[in-house]
Amino acid sequence: WSGSRFSKRPVLPEAIHRDIEVVTDMWGRPRVRLSGAVAEHLKEVTIHLSLTHEADIAAAVAVLEER
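The chain above was modelled as a monomer; its predicted structure follows.
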């Protein structure tokens, strides 16, 4: 479980990582919380997030959908 959480960061400049956070909703599902300039830039986008892991391999997929 924790391995998939650590694979969540996209390949972006380091400063942007402070404005992107993966949190857990009330049902235990991962979701993306944005802040700062990233939140403003992506205000018309829904982010769908999937995390998975098996043994020592973890992966994350994010799909951005324009509203």
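DSSP finds three helices and four strands in the chain.
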